[in-house]
Design a protein that fits this description.
It is a single chain. The chain is mostly helical. The chain contains 15 helices and no strands. The longest helix is centred in the C-terminal third of the chain and has 29 residues. The protein is globular and about 45 Å long. The two termini are 36 Å apart.
């Protein structure tokens, strides 16, 4: 946990973060296709399980050796619990009780929790006034893009469901802190990604089997080709490839910066909607994007430091 990181991201890290936001932004479409025919827990389990198979095949093809230390595999389980099992389960449950718009706004609090948790637990990523302001401005941009939840949607949603989504955001923040230890272990990002989704699968599979039942994938109502295509895309691109990028950014730029992807996902989702769903861009979307850009530049800090020096 003492290995140094660059808290100011370079062009390479920003490109990886934007790519990661595109991969996760597109996942909402594929989940929407799959959820029409499969229960949520089964979708999540298939997503991480197929991602684990994909990643281990790549690891073996690259000739990399599998970790042998029990401590490493325990760390994979904990990372899978914090970064997948807990947040995925809380978000799935929460969205059955509150509107998706409200859930999206609550989930966008992840960087806010991140700045606080990371600042308290990691000595080399202390929270600064500029970072706090940047996260707050970026969060306002997300709220502007998604829309302020109506009072009716807030009242109809239970308090517990709203707390569940906030709990997911907090879990993501702790996951980013816990994930910093893998750099000190000398593990490659693809090994860490494979280990995490393997741990997630081991924890989720029994729960999905118990809750959804073994017949979710069988019988006359078995999933269509379109659903399987969506699941495979989720597993290979939005999970396997996405988590390789996640752990690369985490190792090079730290726990605070990796959580910024939460602010970029709504931007990516809107651009994907423009490209593939013929959606239109509203002025509030542009204003929200501008606020997010200002917030991200403040968190990065370099542009504002140059201005203060002049």
């Amino acid at each position: 946990m003492t290995s140094s990181i660059n808290t100011s991201m370079g062009m390479r890290e920003w490109l990886m973060l934007i790519t990661l936001s595109l991969l996760w932004g597109g996942s909402f479409f594929f989940v929407g296709v799959a959820v029409a025919e499969l229960p949520p827990l089964t979708i999540v389990t298939l997503r991480v399980g197929l991602a684990a198979i994909t990643l281990w095949i790549i690891v073996l093809f690259m000739g990399l050796s599998l970790p042998k230390s029990p401590n490493v595999w325990v760390a994979f389980l904990i990372m899978g619990l914090l970064n997948n099992v807990i947040p995925f389960s809380l978000i799935v449950w929460g969205q059955t009780h509150i509107a998706s718009g409200l859930a999206s706004v609550l989930n966008a609090t992840t960087p806010l929790f991140g700045v606080i948790v990371v600042g308290l637990l990691l000595v080399d990523e202390r929270a600064t006034a500029m970072k706090l302001v940047g996260v707050a401005v970026g969060f306002l941009g997300v709220v502007m893009m998604i829309g302020i939840p109506s009072l009716d949607s807030v009242k109809q949603g239970t308090i517990l469901a709203q707390i569940a989504i906030l709990g997911a955001a907090l879990s993501y923040a702790f996951a980013s802190v816990f994930g910093r230890r893998f750099k000190a272990m000398g593990l490659k990002p693809i090994i860490i990604a494979a280990g995490q989704v393997t741990g997630s699968t081991a924890l989720l599979a029994p729960v999905a089997f118990y809750v959804d039942g073994p017949l979710a994938l069988l019988g006359p109502g078995s999933p269509s080709i379109m659903v399987w295509a969506s699941i495979l895309t989720l597993a290979v691109f939005s999970t396997a490839l996405a988590y390789i990028l996640y752990f690369k950014i985490l190792a090079s730029s730290g726990a605070t910066n990796i959580l910024l992807v939460t602010l970029l996902v709504p931007v990516s989702a809107i651009f994907l909607g423009l490209l593939f769903l013929n959606e239109t861009l509203q002025w509030v979307n542009l204003a929200g994007m501008a606020l997010i850009a200002i917030g991200l530049s403040a968190i990065d800090g370099r542009l504002w430091k140059r201005k203060s020096q002049h």
